[in-house]
Write a structure and sequence with these properties.
Layout (H helix, E strand, L loop, with lengths): L1 E6 L3 H12 L4 E7 L2 H11 L3 E4 L8 H8 L8 E5 L4 H10 L3 E4 L4 H12 L4 E2 L1 H14 L7 H7 L2 H11 L4 H8 L3 H15 L4 H10 L14
Parallel strand pairs: 1-2, 1-3, 3-4, 4-5, 5-6
InterPro entries: CheY-like_superfamily, NreC/VraR/RcsB-like_REC, Sig_transdc_resp-reg_C-effctor, Sig_transdc_resp-reg_receiver, Tscrpt_reg_LuxR_C, WalR-like
Pfam family, one: GerE
GO molecular function: DNA binding
């Protein structure tokens, strides 16, 4: 059962998301918060598998809450659900350590799928935003201090291979089948790899890979081949 916390300052949105997710047999909505401060307190008390956060909320923003929930020692996966697709909000959420970013007007099935992906340790970004976000991150190149050259020194060949597969959108199960290893082995490699890159989530690792030209971003000149 996936335990979910929902935080949004709009009553209708809270009720709608709670009804949508609560109708799924594998999802249990354990808490609903109307502001950022309450969301942070409830998340610490309830320790949900996924915290679904709005960005603009009274008290503390969703980005502030995500930054605390994704910090070492807490590490509660965050899915940001918002009506805003402004780049600064997306970048802020990713830099805070959020595992996913989705627009509220997404298809209900996509929202449910995103919750399951984040709970399973997989990152997700609204498909209409993905390429634009990756291109912008490549130009900004400011998310993490570790450089691509330094990563080549830090990562083992297997970790580098897993990073490339992550960037292709593969799940742990997909990677395990591709490399003919157990899922537990993939998880162990990920647990060692993320700190080396200075990131806290799979999604940040993928963004890092594009940002440091470990993999190519379509339409961006000068990407490594």
């Amino acid at each position: 059962m996936i335990r979910v916390l929902i935080a949004d300052d709009q009553p209708l949105v809270r009720a709608g998301l709670a009804s949508l997710m609560g109708a799924e047999p594998d999802i249990d909505v354990v808490g609903v918060a109307a502001d950022g401060t309450s969301a942070l307190e409830m998340a610490r008390d309830l320790v949900p598998d996924v915290a679904c956060l709005d960005i603009r909320m009274p008290g503390r923003s969703g980005i502030d809450v995500a930054r605390e929930l994704c910090a070492p020692g807490t590490e509660i996966p965050v899915l940001v659900l918002t009506t805003f697709d402004l780049d600064d909000y997306v970048f802020g959420a990713l830099e805070a350590g959020a595992s996913g970013f989705l627009l509220k007007d997404s298809d209900p099935d996509d929202i449910i799928r995103a919750v399951r992906q984040v709970a399973a340790g997989q990152g997700t970004i609204d498909q209409t935003l993905t390429r634009r976000i990756l291109r912008e991150f490549v130009h900004r190149r400011s998310l993490q201090p570790v450089t691509g050259r330094r990563a080549e020194e830090l990562l083992t060949p297997r970790e580098h291979e897993i990073l490339l597969l992550l960037a292709q959108g593969m799940s742990n199960d997909d990677i395990a089948r591709t490399l003919v290893v157990e899922q537990s082995t993939v998880k162990s490699h990920l647990a060692r790899m993320l700190p080396k890159l200075g990131v806290t989530s799979r999604l940040q690792a993928v963004v890092w890979a594009y940002q440091n030209r470990v993999v190519d971003v379509p339409g961006v000149r000068g990407a490594a081949g």
